[in-house]
Amino acid sequence: MDTGLFIALLNPTIALALGAAFLVLWTYQRHRPYLAVLALSYCVSAPGFLFQYFTLPIGMVLTKLVSNICFAIAGCCLSSAIVARYGRKVPYVGIGVLALGGLVSFCWFLFMAPDLTWRILAMNFAFGGISLLVAAELRPVRNHGPTEKILFVLSLLSGLNFFVRTLVVVIAHGPFASYDGFYGSSYWTTALLSHALLSLLIALCLFTAAALDVMKALKTETFTDPLSGLLNRRGFEERAAMLLETCARAKFPVALVLADLDHFKALNDVHGHAAGDRVIADFAAKLRAAAGTRGAAGRIGGEEFAVLLPLSDLASARLFAEAVRTLYSAGSVDGLPPGTKVTASFGVAARSGGEALEPLMRRADEALYKAKKNGRDSVRLSYERPETMFVAEPLKAS
């Protein structure tokens, strides 16, 4: 096979393979539309490269225009998808202005003042600007993880590739008067190879990001209770252990609040399990809103909940429990008959010394039992400290 033809077919083949891979990913993760946009980007770039080497029946001039329109669409889609993947607001106006500006300049030097060198500079500078715009959008999140950092660096390298490489090659080997011998020039060879490398690296990074998304979703499902949206018992214990360790190192106070819905079995029997599910979801929402992001809230049993509160002593944890109890008992639950009152009981314990999670939960559970025993819809505290082992020192002779 001719070397020039092989190089010309390299990028379309890579682009179509990557586009197909992202399309397959999207079919399994339709809640992530950026994957579909990535598939579109790579698939559209494939004919762009083909039409650089092969001429359509419409003629060479219009074929080059179609090719660069494909490149512009692909560049806009790729940059938008990357920015959207990391939760940033996509700068559609900036991307559109750069892409459209490049195409308008390309058309000027194609139809009005034909000049191949300026056409090359116009499109490369437009893509370089888009790459640097993506880098600017990723800059605030570049330290959030490895994929963010790598894509930030790749965006910078892509921008430098479009600006610096183009200028160096054009100055060293240009200007280019026509397409005669253009596809065997150093510009075309370096352009194709650098694009192939950057495309693969960016795609691999995005594949990694998609895989991390799946792993994160699976972990969330493993540690989250689907009905309440809170951590399940396993997730709560893991999160609580981490918080206890962090607070122990910093010597911060920690308190634990256990809550149990009153007469929940009777409520299920009278109003049905669907009503019971609504009660659990409603209480969990109020508990999550009260705890905010500072604590760890979980559903650790059928109608039992737990909240670990860093930076909270016994008094502040009691205020937290009383606030939730008052808010919940004074409200109503959608789907229950008017006037149906649902309440909860609370047990509160503050950590003493380096107390582990298990004894802390045991003391809070004992306080919760007292609240249940003494009429429910109340808050009880655990003032008990964990047992301390003393070793008697031998008596010294006086």
Automatic annotation (TrEMBL):
Biological classification of the source: Bacteria, Pseudomonadati, Pseudomonadota, Alphaproteobacteria, Hyphomicrobiales
PROSITE patterns: GGDEF
SMART domains: GGDEF
Domain of life per record: Bacteria
Membrane-crossing segments per the record: 6-27, 34-53, 65-83, 90-111, 117-138, 150-172, 192-212
Catalytic activity: 2 GTP = 3',3'-c-di-GMP + 2 diphosphate
UniProt keywords, alphabetically: Membrane, Transmembrane, Transmembrane helix
Enzyme Commission number: 2.7.7.65
Organism: Mesorhizobium opportunistum
Domain GGDEF: 252-384
InterPro entries in the record: Diguanylate_Cyclase, GGDEF_dom, Nucleotide_cyclase, Rev_trsase/Diguanyl_cyclase
Class of this enzyme: transferase
One Pfam family from the record: GGDEF
Listed name of the protein: diguanylate cyclase
